[in-house]
Amino acid sequence: MAQRKVLLVTGGGRGIGAAVVRLAAARGWDVAFTYAGNAARAAETEAAAKAAGAQALALQADVADPQAVAATFAQVKERFGRLDALVNNAGITGPKSTLRESTDAIWETVFRTNVLGLVACCRQALDVLPQGGAIVNVSSRASELGGAGEWIHYAASKGAVDTLTIGLAKEAAPQGIRVNAVNPGLIETELHAAAGMPDRVARMSPGVPMARAGSAEEVAEAVLWLLSDGASYVTGALVPVSGGR
Ligand code: NAP
């Protein structure tokens, strides 16, 4: 029997990351994933992946902490002995604020998590992914929409994710590693409430061309396609999953 491939998802305890973990498990991957602090939700996701027939490993690790990132990759190597793909999903918005209201501390926290954490994971992955390996970065449509009045700091961090996706795709192509991004639009998760806007999805859904928010599962479908051999000639792509937004 062919060995199952191993996927690492950052921020896989809840939301889009958890949907990726569950779908990957159902599609034949073994899955390791990290979470920041919500152990109960991570345990639920881990149990769901195991119920789908996968080996699964939940690890508490702050992606903004380089030592925790290094430890994560070491634990994946110890447990699975291989890593075939990485989904850089962990991300935070920071609080709602205009640029004038925002502090350097907000910018630093958001960039340390969304950009530097992702860079640290990519570096580690490039050392271990095989030819045929893949990285998918979870960016955002905010990178082009701009986040005005809500979270320019967050949108700018996702602009950095878009650009480094394009650049790294070119650097990693000779190694046979594909690097792509999905750019979700308005997705129904707990992220909006965490930013202090629990009504954001309901308020903004009518303005989406498809007149509804998307689900975490709909984003996960695009991620799994980009990881699959079906996307074997796709690299450096930024794939909107946004209902036209
Ligand atoms: P979410 O529901 O808030 O879930 C975030 C997940 O990431 C949680 O499992 C959380 O862990 C984990 N996490 C947060 N900070 C972390 C850190 N420093 N280190 C490790 N893990 C961390 O968010 P989501 O809506 O699923 O968002 C996932 C990704 O999609 C983010 O990159 C976000 O920017 C992007 N995105 C979301 C939307 C949207 O509308 N929801 C739209 C565009 C892009 P705990 O469970 O332990 O807290």
UniProtKB/TrEMBL annotation:
Alphabetical list of InterPro entries matching this protein: KR_dom, NAD(P)-bd_dom_sf, SDR_fam
Ketoreductase domain mapped to chain residues: 5-190
SMART domains: PKS_KR
Keyword Protein biosynthesis in record: no
Record keywords: Oxidoreductase
Domain of life: Bacteria
Pfam families in alphabetical order: adh_short_C2
Family named by the database record: Belongs to the short-chain dehydrogenases/reductases (SDR) family.
UniProt xrefs under PANTHER family: OXIDOREDUCTASE, SHORT-CHAIN DEHYDROGENASE/REDUCTASE FAMILY (AFU_ORTHOLOGUE AFUA_5G02870), SHORT-CHAIN DEHYDROGENASE_REDUCTASE FAMILY PROTEIN
Protein name: SDR family oxidoreductase
Source species of the chain: Paracraurococcus lichenis
